[in-house]
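Posting for a labmate who doesn't have an account.
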Amino acid sequence: MKRIAFTIVAIIWAGLALSAATTERLDYTLYFNWKFVWIKAGTASLTTRPITYKGQEAVEATLLASSSGTADNLYYLRDTLTTTVSRKGEPLFFEKHCIEGKDVVWERAWYSRTQQGQYKVDLRKDYVDGHVREDQWTGSQQPYDLVSIMLHARSLDLDDLNVGQRLTFPIVDSKKVLSQTLVYLGRQQIKAEGGGLVECHAFSLKGTILSNKGAKEEEKEVLRFYLSTAAQHVPVQIDINFRFGSAKAKLR
C-alpha cells in the first residue's frame, strides 16, 4: 500500500480550480481491499489557498491523510503533502512528509528552467538515519509530479479526447523522474459515495516496470481515476493498484 496517500492527493487536487481566490477544501473517504472485502480505512482532506511563491502568485495545496480503526493494523498511514503550482498550472515545488507502514518519508522537488531553456528538477530525499540523497534531472519536456499531472488532465478539453488516447510525460516519482503515460478511457458511470450513478471521464496512469524475470519491461497501471463530466471535473473516485491489493477513495 506504499504511496497510497501520494496517489490520492494527485487526483483530489485535480478537482480544484487554480484561479480560486479563496481557501477551498475537499473531503474523501478511504477504503482498503483486504482479502476481497472492502473496509473503511480512514479519511483524507485537501485544503488549498492562494499564496505568493518566490514573488509570483501561486496556489498551495495541503493534504492530510490518515488510516484509522482496523485499517491501522493493516497499514498505518499518516501523511502530509504540500504542492505549489503557478496560476498557469506549472509545478514549482512539492514536498512529501509521511509515515507509511514502517517507512518514514521526507521528499522534496524544486522545478526551474536552465539558462538554455531546458526544464530542470532538483530532487532531495532525507532518510531517518540522517543520510541525504540528492539528484537532478533536465529535459526538453515539462515535467510533472503525480499531483500536477492531474491538474494538467483537468485542464484538457475532455470532450475532444479519443478513447485510448495516450499522453506521455516525465513524472517526478520519489527520488527520480520517470516517463509515465496518461490514457483516456472514455465516459463511464460509477456509483457515488451517497448512492446513485455519476457519469465521469475515466483515466488510467501507467508506468513501465521490469517483469518478474527482470529481463523485459512491461506496462502497469498505477491508478485509475474518474472526473465528473460537470464543468469543474471534480474527481469522484480513485482506484489504486498496489502490490498486495487495492484501495479506493470516494468523494463525500
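Reply:
Got it, the C-alpha cells are right above this. The chain has a mean pLDDT of 82.
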